[in-house]
Specification:
By secondary structure, this protein is of the alpha/beta class. 28% of the residues lie in helices and 22% in strands. A hairpin with a 7-residue loop joins strand 6 and strand 7. Helix 4 packs across helix 5.
């Protein structure tokens, strides 16, 4: 079993209330073995929602309390991101997932490259909160590039 970002399957749960449907991932889902999650929704954030970015570091830094997640209006949404990541981890553990297919750039699911916190479409090397938590718990994270 693998965890997958629900938006990659066509679920309209990204910050814009849209999705990042990825046909290859959808085909894999149809064969079974993928369990969809949306950590931001699990954390109680709405769809659509004000865009958020990690400020002061990466998802690993959020987990250690050194950085926070703030939305474009300046509201600290760190608690929602942490709750969503922990809920996604509990699901991953419950279904025995050893791998996760996550979307790129997101402050939650982003893997390898995330927005830098400036809301200016700039990036830094690092993972989102959920991706970092999965890695900390032995779940392999594979980043899926989305088509824009």
């Amino acid at each position: 079993m693998k965890i997958v970002s629900a938006c990659l399957l066509g679920v309209n749960c990204n910050f814009e209330g849209k999705n990042w449907l990825t046909p290859e991932v959808l085909e894999e889902f149809k064969k079974g073995g993928l369990f969809p999650v949306c950590p931001e929704v699990f954390g109680g954030l709405s769809v659509p929602r004000v865009p958020s970015e990690i400020q002061g570091g990466t998802g690993a830094d959020v987990l250690s309390g050194k950085a926070k997640v703030v939305n474009m209006e300046g509201v600290d949404v760190t608690c929602q991101f942490l709750k969503g990541a922990n809920d996604a981890l509990r699901i991953a553990q419950a279904v025995g997932a050893k791998e996760a297919l996550l979307t790129e750039k997101s402050p939650s699911c982003g893997c390898g490259k995330i927005f830098d916190g400036s809301f200016k479409d700039k990036f830094i090397t690092g993972d989102g909160v959920t991706a970092a938590l999965f890695k900390n718990n032995g779940i392999k994270v594979t980043c899926v590039k989305v088509r824009v």
